[in-house]
Amino acid sequence: MGTPVSGPGAYSKRTDTAVSNANNSLPNAGYGEAKAYEEQRTGAPVAQSGGAPAISLADMFQGMGQDVVPMGAESTQPDVPITDGASLGPGAGLEALGPSAPDPGLQRQKMYLPVWEFLANQPGSSDSARNLIRQIKAQTM
Hints:
mainly alpha, flat
């Protein structure tokens, strides 16, 4: 028998008691199992809630989000175009991000690139292997 379905609104009833009631006995128990189960179930005390102090979300996240600019607020940088840092449009382009220094580890892997490409192109090769090849190619070529 499954857990009964609760009704709506005023007709609702708790449905979580079915689980605790089901744990009170062991159905289809073999010889001696029911007694052992009952001893084990009643032997250890059940943990009581309320031991830890309550923490409110306001205390947990105190001060976080105070620097967030709301969606409808005026810009804090009115002279900077919205496309600043993008490859198209007014403002600085991708060069504003600065030069990226190649990873020396990937530079060393460049000589093994044909081997890595062969392995990455095998059936069953992982996406991680193919992404590694892309990283090596992007930073060394």
